[in-house]
Write a structure and sequence with these properties.
Layout lengths: L19 H12 L1 H13 L5 H28 L6 H7 L21 H12 L3 H7 L28 H15 L3 H9 L4 H4 L3 H11 L8 H17 L4 H23 L10
Helix pairs in contact: 2-3, 3-7, 3-8, 5-11, 6-11, 7-12, 10-11, 11-12
C-alpha cells in the first residue's frame, strides 16, 4: 500500500533529519571561506579592477566550489550514502520526480520546469534582478565598494584563441551547477531540512543558498527569489533534477558567451577576430 505522506517516500525519514546546528555548521563551513577568498586573498594577489584580479577571483571561487564538493563527499560518506550509486542517488534526490500524493516516479512531471523557468527568468534575467540586488545597499552602502569578478572584463579581442579560458569555464560550470553548489545545497541539505523548517524547508534552503554568496553581496537578495524556482519543485517532487536543470541554464549561457569570445565570434560584427 502506497504512503500518502510526502515525508515518508524514499530514504528520508523524520528521525534522520538534520538539527539546526548541523545545517548552519555545514553552511558556515562552505560559506565563510568565500568572502575571505574574494576580499582578502584575491586583492592580496592582484590589484582590484585589473584583468589579473578578475581571473584570480574566478580561480579562487572555483576553489571554493571544489571545497563544497569535498565537504559534500565527507558528509555523505559519514552517512553511508556513497556505498553504491543507488544509495547515493536516493539520498541526494537524483530520481525521477515523485507524485506527492502517491510517491510514484513520473518523468513527465518535469514539465513543471516550464513555469519554474519563467519565474526564474522574471527574477534573474530581467531588470528586476539587479533592482532587488541593489536593495542591500540601503542598509549596507559600503558593499558597493567591494571588488568582484565581472565576466564582461575578459571580453576583449586579446583572448581570441585562448581556449584555456573555455577549459576553465567548463570546470567552473561543473562545480558551480552540479558537483559544488547543487550537490551541497540541494543534494545534501534540502532533503534533511524539513525536521527543522517544516513545510518551509524549500524557502529556508533558498535563503541559505543566497546568503552563501557572501562573495557577491549585490546578488544575494535576488538570488533568494530566483532560487525559489529551483527549491520548490525539487522539494515538492523530491527530485533535484529541477534544480540541476534550472540552475544549469546559467552555465549554458556562460559557456556560449565564452565560446563566442575565444572563437572570435563575439567580435565578427566589429571587424575583429
Amino acid at each position: 500500500m502506497k504512503q500518502t505522506d510526502d515525508t515518508q517516500h524514499g530514504p528520508e525519514k523524520d528521525t534522520d533529519q538534520y538539527s539546526l546546528a548541523k545545517i548552519l555548521t555545514i553552511w558556515a563551513v562552505v560559506a565563510v571561506p568565500m568572502p575571505i577568498l574574494a576580499f582578502v586573498i584575491a586583492p592580496a594577489i592582484a590589484e582590484a579592477g585589473t584583468m589579473r584580479h578578475a581571473f584570480t577571483f574566478w580561480f579562487l571561487m572555483i576553489g571554493g566550489m571544489i571545497w563544497q564538493f569535498i565537504v559534500s563527499l565527507i558528509v555523505l560518506a559519514q552517512e553511508g550514502a556513497l556505498k553504491s550509486w543507488t544509495t547515493f542517488r536516493d539520498r541526494v534526490w537524483l530520481n525521477a520526480p515523485r507524485d506527492p500524493k502517491t510517491g510514484e516516479a513520473k518523468w513527465r512531471l518535469l514539465w513543471w520546469l516550464i513555469p519554474a523557468f519563467l519565474f526564474y527568468a522574471a527574477i534573474e534575467l530581467s531588470p528586476l534582478g539587479p533592482f532587488l540586488g541593489g536593495l542591500i545597499l540601503i542598509p549596507l552602502p559600503f558593499l558597493a565598494n567591494l571588488p568582484e569578478m565581472n565576466i564582461e572584463m575578459i571580453f576583449v579581442p586579446e583572448f581570441v584563441g585562448a581556449w584555456w579560458i573555455m577549459a576553465v569555464t567548463v570546470v567552473s560550470c561543473i562545480f558551480n551547477y552540479a558537483l559544488g553548489e547543487e550537490l551541497l545545497f540541494r543534494g545534501v541539505l534540502l532533503p534533511k531540512m524539513r525536521g527543522v523548517f517544516g513545510k518551509w524547508d524549500w524557502v529556508a534552503n533558498a535563503v541559505l543558498f543566497a546568503t552563501y554568496h557572501l562573495h557577491v553581496p549585490l546578488r544575494i537578495l535576488f538570488i533568494v527569489f530566483g532560487a525559489l524556482a529551483w527549491t520548490l519543485p525539487s522539494r515538492h517532487f523530491r527530485s533535484n533534477w529541477f534544480a540541476l536543470i534550472l540552475h544549469g541554464v546559467e552555465g549554458v549561457f556562460l559557456l556560449v558567451m565564452v565560446f563566442a569570445l575565444v572563437s572570435g565570434l563575439a567580435f565578427l560584427g566589429n571587424g575583429q577576430g
